[in-house]
Amino acid sequence: MFVFRRTHSPAFDSRIPGQGSLIWNVSFGMIYVSIGMIYSIFPCRCMMVESDLRWLGLSDSKVAETIKNKSLTEQLVSIVKLAKQQLASVGQKLDVFPKGSLLYNVGSKTKAQCAHHLPTVVQLIVEDKIKTDIQATAAVSYILAHAMKDLNRTELEKECGVGIIVTPAEIEETVKCIIGTYKEKLIIERYQFPVGKILGDARAKLKWADGKYLATEVEIQLRNLLGVKTEDDLKPKSKVKGDQKQGEKKKADEVVEETEGPSTMEELIKSRARLHKVGENYTSDGYVVTPNTERLLKEHVVRTGGQVRTRFPPEPNGLLHIGHAKAININFAYAKAYNGVCNLRFDDTNPEKEEKKFFDGIEQMVRWLGYTPAKITYSSDNFDQLYKWAIELIEKGLAFVCHQTVEEMRGQDQKASPWRDRPVHESLRIFQDMKNGKLEEGDATLRLKLTLEEGKMDPVAYRIKYCHHERSHDNWCIYPTYDYTHCLCDSIEDITHSLCTKEFQSRRSSYYWLCNALDVYCPVQWEYGRLNVNYTVVSKRKILKLITSKIVRDWDDPRLFTLAALRRRGIPSEALNSFVARLGLTGSQMVIDPHLLDASVREYLNVHSPRTMAVLDPISVVITNYSSLGMASSISIPDFPSVPSSTVHDISFGSTIYIEREDYQSGTPSKEFRRLAMGQSVGLKHIGLVLEMEKEIVSDDGSVISIEVKAYKVTGENKPAAFIHWVANPIPVQVRLYERLFHHKNPEDTEEVPGGFLSDCNENSLTILHRVFVDKYMSTIKVWDRFQFERIGFFSVDPDTTREKIVFNRTLLLKEDSTKK
Amino acid sequence: MAPQNKPNKNPKKEDKKEAKGVTPSPPAAPAGISPNQELQQLYTTQFNAEVDVARLTRLLTAMETGEITEELLEVCPELVEVQQKNQKLKFRKTILERSVKTQEDENAKKGIKTAADGPSKGAPDAKKSKEESKGGKEEQKGGKGEKKEGDNNKNNKTPSAPPKAKKHDYVVVKDFAGSIMGRLAHVFKKAIKEAFPTVSVPLVLAEATNPKFGDYQCNSAMGISAALKAQGTAKRPAEVAADIVAKLPVCPLISKTEIPPAGFINVFLNEEFIAKQCGEISRHGVRLPTIESRRVIVDFSSPNIAKEMHVGHLRSTIIGDAISRLFEAIGFDVLRLNHIGDWGTQFGMLIAHLFDRFPNFQKETPAIGDLQSFYKESKKRFDEDAEFKKRAYECVVKLQSSQPEFIKAWNDICDVSRKSNNEVYDKLDIKLNERGESYYHNRMEAIVEELKTRSFLREEEGRHLMFPTGCDIPLTVVKSDGGFTYDTSDLAALKNRLFEENGDWLIYVVDAGQSLHFETIFSAGRDLGWYDEAVKRVEHVGFGLVLGEDKKKFKTRSGETVRLKDLLDEGVRRSEEKLKEKCRDRDMSEAELTAARDAVAYGGIKYADLSHTRTQDYIFSYDRMLDDKGNTAVYLLYAYARIRSIVRQSGVSQEEMDKYAASNELLPLGHPKEVKLAKQVLKLSDVILQVVDTLMLHTLCDYLYNLSTTFTEFYSECYVVEKLEGTSKVNMNRLLLAHVTANTMETALNILGIKPVPKM
């Protein structure tokens, strides 16, 4: 099998164009075929496989587990074969190989693209030159780095420390020396001191030391120094840390962020992402190496100057949503972390659904998140090239024109296309006819001849659409698909890391297949987990439905989770970015509740949005003794009361002020009620006054119109139970209060919501307050300004704001509403 | 949005109606409200209604003026759909227009005529892109297709076709016979030349589409008027038309002409002339036009030895035979040649295998049996066994040096093939002279010599190439190993046919995929000065593929090529089934039934092929070809048998008919349907002239079909035998007309190679 993969054999006629790449493609399939044969046709072979695995010293359970992994098993079987051959050549035959774990280690770590170097490594193990796992691992990385080169055995031996023997005495001495340097700290921190640090230092000095032995030595020496662990030492570490955190939190917010791990994607990437270096694409998992790979990679490095190049490739057929925030962050931050560049590429291959406003909206959102694309590119810029390549694929017999309908191509057990083997010239002719408008929409597609991971056959590369294109105008009536366009545009743009969500893992093989079929530079695709949010829908179609059903106003209705909606709601991009960064870089799909985002945002706004007082449901309060108080008509209050050096804003004060209707209770107040009522005084924030109830003025229909009070300076004696917010010289503004749009976690799930997502909408998700009072100083605020309305929540100025009317959106309540979970 | 609005507004409208009705107070108003309030309510209702009226008026206006407002789209969701469709179609139109333009530009660059330039045969051709015709070659290696595999790679580069030969008039008519069109064209050309000697505009003559406009129309006046204008003389088309008519020589064919203001010339035929022509036919039989005789060589069928004939050979065989029959019918000297593939390296392999399998073959004829599997066996050995391969090559050398033992082996192999091919030819009643490639073996050497001495060859990488004028792809005359190619043999054949056979017309009936190859060969022939294309007609008559009913290459269920023999047998089987289904076996003797069965089966297969535009692919369907309705052989054969039976059952003897004919110089024509049928009968000559020019046999098929439908029209209105109160009266003129019709049909069917049977 491995020999086959590497084929430089003259059996394959290199004069036939395209044949080379075909073979590479096939080799993957070969693995499955041969495994299939082992299990189905020759059950006795299965026994042989098991005995081979046992020969490595694996336990029965491990054998059973390993067999499930077909490719690993195949690799191990071939390694065992190699090892046995080599043993036989020196006249040895063993029932169980004593260092089977080394071979297993090598087998599980070696990537397919360098498996042809395995014999050398196995030989080193058999000859007992590689003795430890560390050496074996070093050998594996060495052969990977030399996947496309010839192997220099001497260098390999040097690289994995063959012949270097680290004696126990050396280890003891080194550890002693290191512990000595940390001695003081160790005595104070005792077992809280990270052992890893000691081990790390030791490893740096003694590269080839046996790991287990080293660890034991460190343990022994620490016990010698510190004695046995006490009860204190056994207490969980985190508690101590937590205490520290609380203490530090008050000092500065940055500290908090630091202890919680990387707060920006860039930091996260620097610390977590382990992706290949530019030009070393072949070292990544599953990368397919062809005879041209080395040359193509070299050329690629020359073109890019070795610079990391990523791209964010949205389709301009809708607006970006929160899931994209992750994609944007990962792509741009990866580039930033490695001094690279990131392009914004509009994948504009489906003109039916594309609109100018989406192009603009997407770019705006990328910039809003704080990123600047190195270049803005369009898939449509490459239509000519893509078409030429399509012709090339047909000519190579790797693509064909098919007349199956969409329905026939869909579904689980789709039939193979009866047109799969039609002659090349026929496909060429019909493809040209497609391009020339001779066929009806849907009458023909161009399909690629390959089977995808999940058995899906022959993905479509081109389809007919009689549709005007925003950029290519009426030049084309055939448009390429995602599958076809994406990887090739990546290749054209010399993308080094093609980062995408996990769903596309199944397209990876087609991605590599296509690039290799055309003998063009093949970028590496890396996948990360998609970010989904509960209690919302993000699909373009569904949002459109919400809009046309007049449930939401537009794509940026703050109840939605499009980026435009989040911005309009007042979510700061910084908070969004750090939220995404904190979710990490795992490969699994992530579904988060909106309140998690809220918490992140709250934390940010708490520090960044100035306080102000606003009364949502005002009731007027007349201070009857106002003139006797001698108060100034204007006072300065800090924007951030907890920050000593905070900036300030001036607000008015006067004889009539407005307070929240709910801060007053008519009649005898209930026991829990701590604010203004007959016989119960309340304090006014920031001004040091206490109000004492005199009487209420009631209208004809019995509602309270206003309250008359007397005011006194706050003293030690009359200190009220609560201080409330107020506005004295108000301007009326509009405030929009938003609540969750959907009742259920998964409104799209028909089991959870049998009536469909439209039936799941919260009819009261938007409340508009038309008479909210804020101080007159706010008449000069600008759209997007954010405030914390004291005691209420975070608000942001809506773009609907005009000179006559200010509109606020409620971003968040101050605290999570415990009633909604 | 529309549904939301509608329910709100409609009730309001109702309100209004009721408000205007008999009861003045709206019943909706709850009791006990003040008159003031009530008035207020009425005002509101009225206001709403007015708004609604205004809206509906706007919609109506929009609809009437065709202005598509958003409001309108909201009420008519279908309109949105249609509008989208319309947009798509418009977009497609743009694309198509551009594609046409691009193709035209490209054609212009390469000197290919577009459809508009060459009306006679260009039209169907132009539709086919080059790739398409190439497709014919690879997909169905019909006729010579399979010999040309070596050229495929070269052809893939989409080379430009050599410029098509300029159209020449090869057909010199001596006697138009019944031809109407031919005569009309003749007199009109004369008239135009006399009236406007300075103008050369092609004659536009067509059958009138409406009896109001006469029988034929000459539409040349507009073109001439335009040409005159270009010369500086202004003359309206109507004036031009009048001038032409003035110069029109006296012609017994024309009864009158009319010139509508637009400048057409409507021609009304003289019924007397028609009656006279029919009278002549009734006396002397069907007459075809007389054309200056030529020696014609038709190259068709051309299968390969050792491979059984398959469906790919069907079209060449049928079309080639029909073309030959046509030429023979008009008295040409026709040589039918079967250019079989009987020479080449594959024979080395076959002979070597023969030696191994039948070591005794020199003494007794080997029982090769199935030659196809014999071929496969040897091919397999050839591919897998290097030693055998070497031997096979040695055999080729020995064969080519005419060693008797090898010639014997070769003959044995060819005989097997020949025998099986002849079965097919016999069934289809097709005669062919076999003249395979081997015939040219020595001539090829001579050709190479000629080309070498005349310095027409260029050597490239060991090959000797010839670069004919205007062709992208050279001819490989000698391969690098010294061997010859199809290019060489076709050059040798061309020269042989021109010089040794003295052919005037050389017709190659080979699939359309070979067009490039032949254009190149012909161009080479002209370069070599072998012929003048103004004098000699050397033409590749191409044809499209045979497709299955799934519109894909016609194959058996298991996906193999259909053997021609099987195809014919299946046709016979189905035809018999069909006849029995109709209980025809009861009315016919066994011999008659067999004759009818074969006529239907073979006639059906031939006619299905011939009735489709030659240059296009056609779909092979037994059901369709055996259908007794529509333009099928079965329908025609039935129609023919019926006319014969009408004549038979009239009880009038042949002598009586002859007597009647002899006494009536003009066949009396009274009823309009009689006239119509008579005209249709006479058109055969026009059709023949046309087909001799275009070699598009479907025109003749269409004619036949029209003739039989015209007869049906005639027969349903005109009694041949009138039965009145027990006595029956025969309308002799009609009987004669029927008789003439049957004879005309028989003539046409014979040309198509379809055997008419008097009883079905």
TrEMBL record, chain A:
GO molecular function terms listed in the Swiss-Prot or TrEMBL record: ATP binding; glutamine-tRNA ligase activity
PROSITE patterns on file: AA_TRNA_LIGASE_I (PS00178)
Domain of life: Eukaryota
Origin species: Pristionchus pacificus (Parasitic nematode worm)
GO biological process per UniProt: glutaminyl-tRNA aminoacylation
Its EC number(s): 6.1.1.18
GO cellular component entries: aminoacyl-tRNA synthetase multienzyme complex; cytosol
Gene: WBGene00272314
Gene3D superfamilies: 1.10.10.2420, Glutaminyl-tRNA synthetase, non-specific RNA binding region part 1, domain 1 (1.10.8.1290), HUPs (3.40.50.620), Ribosomal Protein L25, Chain P (2.40.240.10)
PANTHER family to which the protein is assigned, alphabetical: GLUTAMINE--TRNA LIGASE, GLUTAMINE-TRNA LIGASE
InterPro entries membership: aa-tRNA-synth_I_CS, Gln-tRNA-synth, Gln-tRNA-synth_Ib_RNA-bd_2, Gln-tRNA-synth_Ib_RNA-bd_N, Gln-tRNA-synth_Ib_RNA-bd_N_1, Gln-tRNA-synth_Ib_RNA-bd_N_2, Gln/Glu-tRNA_Ligase, Glu/Gln-tRNA-synth
Protein name: Probable glutamine--tRNA ligase
Membrane-spanning segments: 21-42
Entry similarity comment: Belongs to the class-I aminoacyl-tRNA synthetase family.
The reaction(s) this protein catalyses: tRNA(Gln) + L-glutamine + ATP = L-glutaminyl-tRNA(Gln) + AMP + diphosphate
UniProtKB/TrEMBL annotation, chain B:
CDD domains (alphabetical): ArgRS_core
Keywords: Aminoacyl-tRNA synthetase, ATP-binding, Cytoplasm, Ligase, Nucleotide-binding, Protein biosynthesis
Top-level EC class: ligase
Database matches in Pfam families: Arg_tRNA_synt_N, DALR_1, tRNA-synt_1d
Compositional bias per record (Basic and acidic residues), positions renumbered to this chain: 11-20, 124-154
Subcellular location: Cytoplasm, Cytosol
Gene Ontology CC entries for this record: aminoacyl-tRNA synthetase multienzyme complex; cytosol
GO molecular function: arginine-tRNA ligase activity; ATP binding
PANTHER family from the UniProt entry: ARGININE--TRNA LIGASE, CYTOPLASMIC (PTHR11956:SF5), ARGINYL-TRNA SYNTHETASE (PTHR11956)
Family: Belongs to the class-I aminoacyl-tRNA synthetase family.
Protein's recorded name: Probable arginine--tRNA ligase, cytoplasmic
Source organism of the structure: Pristionchus pacificus (Parasitic nematode worm)
Name of the gene this protein is made from: WBGene00109464
